[in-house]
């Protein structure tokens, strides 16, 4: 279990991946939209998306020529909501650093 937890949370280990997840929580987006909204190179965003996709944090669907990425609504969206609830209620460290 320890190794699985480590790999799961390691997948989220960059600010870019967290930023992508936050943007996808707002609305499904293409690589181009994410790249523009996050002011990041398209190649960096694509690389991060592959990692998030491989771990099942996000899913993808084709719309014409575009691939639209969205959060896994079964597990990741509820997990994000739980993280927000935990931070607001319990996490003294997060409350100090995020204002």
The whole-number mean of residue pLDDT values reads: 92
The secondary-structure element order is HHHHEEHH
Shape: globular
Count the helices. How many? 6
Terminal-residue CA separation: 34 Å
Percent helix range: 55-70%
Uncertain runs:
none
Radius of gyration, whole Å? 14 Å
Content-based structural category: alpha+beta
Give the beta-strand count.
2
Q: What is the CATH superfamily?
A: Winged helix-like DNA-binding domain superfamily/Winged helix DNA-binding domain
Major beta sheet summary: 2 strands, antiparallel
Write out the strand line-up for the largest beta sheet, numbering strands in chain order: 1-2
**How many domains make up the 3D coordinates?**
1
Description:
By secondary structure, the chain is of the alpha+beta class. The chain contains 6 helices and 2 strands. Strands 1-2 form a two-stranded antiparallel sheet. Helix 3 (31-38) crosses helix 4 (42-54). The longest helix has 14 residues, at 76-89.
List keywords for this structure.
single chain; 99 residues; alpha+beta; Arc Repressor Mutant, subunit A; two-stranded antiparallel ribbon; 2 strands; 12% strand
Question: Nutshell version of this structure?
Answer:
By secondary structure, the chain is α+β, with helices and mostly antiparallel strands.
Q: What is the element layout, followed by pairings?
A:
Elements: H1 2-10, H2 15-26, H3 31-38, H4 42-54, E1 58-63, E2 66-71, H5 76-89, H6 92-97
Antiparallel strand pairs: 1-2
Helix pairs in contact: 3-4
């Amino acid at each position: 279990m320890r190794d699985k937890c480590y790999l799961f949370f390691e997948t989220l280990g960059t600010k870019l991946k967290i930023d992508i997840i936050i943007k996808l929580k707002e609305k499904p987006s293409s690589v181009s939209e994410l790249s523009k909204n996050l002011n990041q190179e398209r190649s960096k965003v694509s690389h991060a998306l592959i990692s998030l996709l491989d771990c099942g944090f996000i899913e993808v669907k084709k719309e014409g020529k575009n691939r639209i990425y969205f959060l896994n609504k079964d597990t990741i969206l509820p997990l994000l909501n739980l993280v927000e609830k935990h931070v607001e209620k319990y996490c003294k460290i997060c409350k100090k650093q995020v204002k």
